[in-house]
Fold:
Amino acid sequence: MASSEKIIATEETIGQYIPQKSPVIMIGKLLEVTDTKTVTSLLIKDDNLFCSKGLFREPGLIENMAQTAAAGVGYISKESGKEPPLGFIGGLRNLRIYELPKVGSEIRTEVTVEHEIFDATVVNGKIYLQDHCITECELKIFLINDK
Structure:
């Protein structure tokens, strides 16, 4: 990745935007947030909860996409003076995993909002290794707004 890359949050600061805590945090950097798109990256380390036999496994890829979506919502919430809402995955469709990334590689995840209905959001997630897509799916995410 280019050294001029803008970083909104790092491993040390990402926790303010997502509800997950270590060792379940599956994003390393928050790179871009708009109303409809969030981009993160993750350097895959050997001690990652979802690594096995030198590979970042399927549950980690799904959690990475979900946390990318959460980080975007959390960032927008914080910017407007609100606490980030809790959310959960309510559905997963058309999951395609073309390749499992190896320990030591860095993945880039892009989540795009397709549509929102009440507290449900449908997003399209894609994970890239270098310049090729290694995972993609559609996630239905439900937000819990206490207030």
Notes: The CA atoms of residues 117 and 142 lie 10 Å apart. The beta strands are 29-33, 37-43, 51-52, 55-56, 86-97, 106-117, 120-129, 132-144.
